[in-house]
Amino acid sequence: MTTSPMSISVTIRRATSTVVVFRGEELVSTEVIDVGGDDVDAAITEHVRTSAGIEIGPRTAERIKIELGGAAQLSIKGRSLETGVPASCDVVVDEVQQAALAAMEPVVGRLDGLLQRWGRKTSEVHLDGGGALLAGFAERVTYSAIMGRKGGD
């Protein structure tokens, strides 16, 4: 007797994420995680604050999140934490992307836990929602689904 391969759906919303696991046509698990796109925006805001000394608003953080995959460096405008006046700076996309992906690690961790519980024979991974478009997130989820969190199970 063979078991059906699993398919996984990961949906990233503004405030929460959902991981759903199917084996064949049977729903085997659904988990909601209190991490979403807003957490990515907050991680980007904090990274810019600590690395560049500039306070940015939610719209700028969202723009950075959207543009992460398209350039090596982004010019941003905000308010200097030191002087309180408008300021601009260039941020390194790789550094911001790492901060953004770190905010999504609880989703990857939950996915990995489900895969350990239900087995790694996965045929499909579906990503949905705006946060799923985060540069590098699809690769991170796929790596976890295939190899496991630490590089192999």
Quickly describe the structure:
The chain has helices spanning 37-52, 58-67, 93-103, 105-118, 137-147; strands at 6-12, 17-23, 26-33, 54-55, 73-80, 86-92, 122-128.
Could you walk me through the main structural features you see in this protein, from its secondary elements to its overall organization?
Helix content is 41%, strand content 30%. With 153 residues, the protein is α+β, with helices and mostly antiparallel strands. Strands 3-2-1-7 form a four-stranded mixed sheet, covered by helices on one side. A hairpin with a 5-residue loop joins strand 5 and strand 6. The mean pLDDT is 88.
List descriptors.
153 residues, alpha+beta, four-stranded mixed β-sheet, three-stranded antiparallel β-sheet, 5 helices, elongated
Q: Secondary-structure map with pairings?
A:
Layout: E1 6-12, E2 17-23, E3 26-33, H1 37-52, E4 54-55, H2 58-67, E5 73-80, E6 86-92, H3 93-103, H4 105-118, E7 122-128, H5 137-147
Parallel strand pairs: 1-7
Antiparallel strand pairs: 1-2, 2-3, 4-5, 5-6
Helix pairs in contact: 1-2, 1-3, 4-5
